[in-house]
Each structure stands twice: as C-alpha cells, then as structure tokens.
Amino acid sequence: MSLTVTDRRIYGVSSFGRHVDFPISAVTSVSASGKRDITLLTPSGKVLFGNFENTDELFQAISKMLVEQQG
C-alpha cells in the first residue's frame, strides 16, 4: 500500500489494491483508526489505506488541508 499527499492531490494504492487519484477538494473527511490505518471519505465512497508507520503525520497533514480548503 502507498499513499502520496501533495498540496492538491492524494493518490496511491489502497489496502484492497484499488488505485486512487483524486483532488483534495474531493475528500470530505479523514479518520485514523488504530495506530496504522487512514480512511478517506469521498463522494465516491470510503477508501482505506493501512499499515503506515506515520499515520498521525498523514492524518494531521490531510486534516489541515481540509480545514484550509473550507476556510
């Protein structure tokens, strides 16, 4: 699994092998479950990314971008 977060897009391979590539504006919420999983909610559905050592860092970065996008 992989996840790349830029200032405009999130792309990678989810835990079920699904390739995703969407703009930050398409993400409606982010959640961290457990110590290693990130879940992104988009209009297309839920996308689970798992087994990351830096889950907290990813969660904080994506959350910050979502807040900036709304404000």
Give a structural overview.
- By secondary structure, this protein is of the alpha+beta class.
- Helices cover about 25% and strands about 40% of the residues.
- The strands form 2 sheets. Strands 1-2-3 form a 3-stranded antiparallel β-sheet, with helices on one face. A 3-stranded antiparallel β-sheet has the order 4-5-6, with helices on one face.
- β1 and β2 form a beta hairpin.
- It is globular and about 30 Å long.
- The termini are far apart.
Poorly predicted runs are: none
Overall form: globular
Number of helices: 1
Order of strands side by side in the largest beta sheet?
A: 1-2-3
What is Rg? 11 Å
Sheet of most strands? 3 strands, antiparallel
Q: State which percent range the strand residues make up.
A: 35-45%
Name the helicity range.
10-25%
* Mean pLDDT metric: 91
The count of strands amounts to: 6
The arrangement of helices and strands along the chain is EEEEEEH
Distance between the termini: 31 Å
Structural category: alpha+beta
Describe the structure concisely.
With 71 residues, the chain is an alpha+beta fold. Helices cover 23% and strands 42% of the residues.
